[in-house]
Amino acid sequence: MRRAVLTTVLFLALSGCASTPLPASATAPTPQPCSPSTAITGWSDALEGQRFAGRTPTPQVVGNLSALAALPDGRVLALSDRSVLFALDAAADRPLDAVALADPAGKPLDSESLVVDRDGTLLIGDETGPQILRVDVDGRLRGALPVPPDVVDRGKPNTTLEGLTLSPDGHILTASLEEPLRGDDPGLTRLVTWTRPGPSSSAFVPGPQYALPLPAGLGVSELTPTGDGRLLALERGYEKATGNTVHLVLLDPAGATDVATVAALTPATAGTPVRTTLLADLGACPSLGATARQPQRNPLLDNVEGMTITGRAPDGALELLLVSDDNDSPQEVTRTYRLRTTLG
Fold first, then answer.
1. Distance CA 272, CA 253 (A)
2. 168-174: Cβ within 8 A, 24+ apart
3. What angle do CA 249, 250, 252 make, to 5 degrees?
4. Of 67, 65, 76, whose CA–CA distance to 326 is shortest?
5. What is the Cα 67 distance to its own chain's centre?
6. Under the phi-then-psi rule, with left for phi > 0, alpha for psi from -120 to 50, and beta for the rest, what region is 83?
7. Average pLDDT for 260-285
8. pLDDT of res. 278
9. 253 neighbors 232 (Cβ within 8 angstroms)
10. pLDDT tens across 123-174, in order?
């Protein structure tokens, strides 16, 4: 009888464990601190595994998301580096539309960065060219921006136009190179800018470039403007044994030296670089019950690549939406994050 009771108890315990689903999302009752300036308010895996056709020929996996852009009506654009642009609902957990993208030759893009221009058209950074394409929201190609020759000639594969952002007045477009150009110091990448010649002009021309210090092992995966001339950036890295590192960093280009004509960027030739302030290491955020499919020092973390500002909290903090790129890997997940950060 004792053996039968123990067997029954063990069966019920194991059955209970097996039937308990892993959490798919979590919302903190109050923002949970990651650092003195930054807190997490929630995360969600709701997009993971979803398929959606929209206006694409066949259903597409809602994954490989590398960039985000919040729209005035509350929707969020999410750019897949597999040549698909998704429109998500305001909660960023349900696709509403999907359109296919292609380069001027009709070939797929390695689309990594996204900006909504003031006329409603989209600027998309493609690492294959590298190139910046202008498209309509329905994916129709409208043109391309001139990319500086040094970026085209010395950019390493899959490490160029990873971040893209537009100043609130629409006059300055800024791209982050994920890693240094060939010939540049390994600890210095570049912010590359384009400017509009006049207030009514729609054309961009190449502008100044600025040296941006990089921590060892990390690259810049996203940019977004704060509204006061500064930029928020994501620094991201990966080690097999410990997983991902994701930093939220404040960049200030004011007073930085223009290095557009500097062929070999070094500490000696960089002049005054962009000032950087670490706001938070996302590995220090509470996990809020998140789980990971691979080794991570914090199971909350994954391959975070996209970020946009969705609003401002009553206390003035910026409300951020982040997304991870699952790279079509069963070991990674498409996860969204909600953060609040206060700028000094």
1. 9
2. 168/225, 168/227, 170/117, 170/118, 170/196, 171/195, 171/196, 171/199, 172/196, 172/207, 173/115, 173/123, 173/132, 173/145, 173/204, 174/223, 174/231, 174/253
3. 140
4. 65
5. 5
6. left
7. 98
8. 98
9. no
10. 999 998 999 999 999 999 999 999 999 999 999 999 999 999 999 999 999 9
**Domains located in the chain, CATH noted:** 28-341 (2.115.10)
Distance (Å) of CA 36 to CA 213, 280, 314, 327: 23, 8, 18, 32
Q: Which residue has the tokens 């990594």?
A: 112
- Contacts (Cβ under 8 Å, ≥6 apart) of 29: none
32 CA to centre of own chain: 22
Whether 13 has a pLDDT exceeding 50, the answer reads no
Per DSSP, the residues of 263-303 read SS--TTTS-SPPEEEEEEEGGGS--TT---SS--SSTT---
Half-sphere exposure of 213 (CA within 13 A, CB side): 16
Residue 7, C-beta contacts closer than 8 angstroms, at least 6 positions apart: none
Q: Say how far apart CA 148 and CA 150 lie, in whole Å.
A: 6
pLDDT 10s digits, 224-262: 999 999 999 999 999 999 999 999 999 999 999 999 999
> What's at 149, amino acid-wise?
P
CA distance 301 to 308: 18
Residue 77 above 90 pLDDT? yes
CA distance linking residue 283 with residue 244, whole number of Å: 8
What sections of the chain are H helices per DSSP?
2-19, 149-154
* Closest among 309, 313, 285, 310 to 299, alpha carbons compared: 285
Q: Give just the sign of the alpha carbon dihedral 312, 171, 247, 114.
A: positive
Tens digits of per-residue pLDDT, 14-61?
A: 333 333 455 799 999 999 999 999 999 999 999 999 999 999 999 999
d(CA 244, CA 189): 20
pLDDT at residue 74, as a whole number = 95
